Amino acid sequence: MSDQKNEKILTARGVVTEALPSTLFRVMMEDEKEILAYLSGKMRMNRIKVLIGDQVEVVLDPYGGKGRIVKRL
Q1: Which position among 18, 29, 35, 54 has the lowest Cβ density within 10 Å, counted as fewest Cβ atoms?
Q2: Full-model pTM
C-alpha cells in the first residue's frame, strides 16, 4: 500500500482552450504544452463550472497521462 504523504504532487497552472465531451478539457499550460485534463471529484460534487478561457490549477499525472483539474482561479 503506498503512502500518499511521501509522494510529491506536481501541480501546474494553465488556461482552458477547449471543452470536450464527458468533462474533458484541453488545457494550455504555462510552459506552452497542451494536455488533456478532467474535472476532479470535488469539483463535480460542488458543480463548479469550468469554461473556455478560465485559468485552472492542474495536478499532473507522474506517468504522463491526463491531468486532473482541482481548482478554478
Answers
A1: 18
A2: 0.85
